[in-house]
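Q: Structure tokens for this one, please.
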Amino acid sequence: MAKKEYRPEDYTADPAAQQMIIRAEELGIDTAFTRASNMSPCPIGGAGMCCKLCGMGPCRLTKDGQTGVCGATIDTIQARNFIRAVAAGAAAHSDHGRDMAFTLKAVANGEAEGYVIRDVAKLRTVAQFYDIPIEGRSPSEIANDLADLYIAQFGQQKGEIVLLKRAPLKRQKVWQETGVVPRGVDRETVEALHRTHIGDDQDYEHLLQHAIRTALADGWGGSLIATDVSDILFGTPAPVLGQANLGVLREDMVNVVVHGHEPTLSQMVVAASQAPDIIAYAKSKGAAGINLSGICCTANEILMRQGIPAAGNFLHQELSILTGAVEAMVVDVQCIMQALVQLAENFHTKIITTSPKVKIRGATHIEFDEHKALTVAKEILRTAIDNFENRGKTHIPQERENLIPGFSHEYINYMLGGNYRGSFRPLNDAVMSGRIRGVAAIVGCNNPRSKQDWLHNYVAAELLKQDVLVVETGCGAIASAKLGLLLGEAGLEKVGPGLREICETVGIPPILHMGSCVDNTRILTVLTQMVETGGLGDDIDQVPAVGLAPEWMSEKALSIGSYCVASGAYVIFGGSSPVSGMPDKMDDSDLVLNFLSEGWEELYGGKMEFIADPDEMIAHTLAHIDKKRAALGLPVYHPEQFGRSGDARMIDLEQLPIAKRRAALYGVPAG
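A: Here is the predicted structure, written as tokens:
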């Protein structure tokens, strides 16, 4: 069979990315796109039917009744593989949260150079959740106690992690009754690995229940800690103007791209780039200054708070280097391709690793230390500035789009009523009336096995037509930004009439950018506030809402999906399932897949499904939203009711002949 030929537009929906793929082909350089097309994924491992957890294997199960050398069945092997992925994802997110908690402790004690507590109001609000005294105490005193509390959540051996109290009361009871309340973040992750060691847990349902427990320790533990502390230290996001795509790179400036997930590094690089001595140093080398931009979730962190432009999402990391305009790519942890170093050898770009947890052979390592953060950040920037004179010919695509990020749950509450009457009541009322049919959270990665950004944007666009309010985080949010969907006036002619009415009234884009991967906890907080506001049930599983990860690829995505399911959400993943098995050939290969859907739905009201076809994904989303509306007794969704008047009575009157309308309005005789 002849090998399929790919065109740039087959790889990505982004015109800037298409240009850089052509550039890579001209230079004979591989990218993740071409490597993915040249490497066929293993169908056995991809379906979760391979076990390599001991030296007796690897064991591949492809026939009915077949077991591993130890006797492990397909359902046990799939469940073990799934929970290990969840544990790795939870560990990555939660380790981020741990580092943030330690940074908060250092700032509280005056031991972290360059950092201050920027959002004292958020600090006081969060402290009150946990009964930390705030009256008559300084921010440093409160922060010190909060840091101690958060740090303790990781090593706690018994009891419950304290952050669970921020979930709806009914949801907390569900977790208690099903026995999945996390004790400590580290304990659940360690136990997940212990249970999956050779000769341990062999009941797939029992294994998957601990996957829920581990994921909850991430979503309502480590990730929520990371979001809280980031807001306290760097400011709670509110709308700002930013730009996205490779066109944000500058021909006349030193281009530094920050990539990864740790805001402690990126926020300090932002501060250092604005220092007069660093700007003067850049000018002494012939540059007009420092141009900072971001990739991946680091991009979202600095975009949300300072409006620093995003050069792109996950699959743009190689493409930005291909422009020849990047003096340094500064990376910390997660989603960093090892291919960057070899790629950079074709250009002048320096790859600078900064985390003690991550080194890449051939990269320059400048270890970041929060205790001397500004000093290290300036060293990194001077290294980039010194490299400016080595720049050769550049190829910077001119594609870039404006966007408005910064929709934290605090700002959503504010924008719906201001300081005087801030409330989720208008949002709930819009859902209850049917102007907003429901809510969809479209989150997650890019995956070169699917056309970059296309799934994210197709699903978002189709749901907007159906009056579904969309919130986004991570690389999915950057995908919409590059398409121009994150502006107040963006694409409103393609938005359903009810949702358009809301967007125009409040002055918001039809898609709300809520932050980075760990900021999926903001979405849980929004859903909790919607429940507490009233009218949409008394738990998250009753809200007409769906979570989608159309282009997922990381273990973190499986952890996020699992804690959202445990919180009561219906979660849809695009692409292939990691536990699909071969249902057409094996009688027992769908046990795990069914339990993630039907079993978890029975226990938690949420479920996880893997749906490859985007139209089927959209159909399932709308069906679920409508089912939840019906269960709440809300009106059946009819888009033709809205878009002409915000007053339901006026809509009814508009259906009357003019004479009867005058009679109803003014009490005059109809004749």
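A few notes: Confidence is low (pLDDT under 50) at residues 645-651. The chain has five domains: 10-49, 74-234, 242-390, 403-580+588-641, 647-671.
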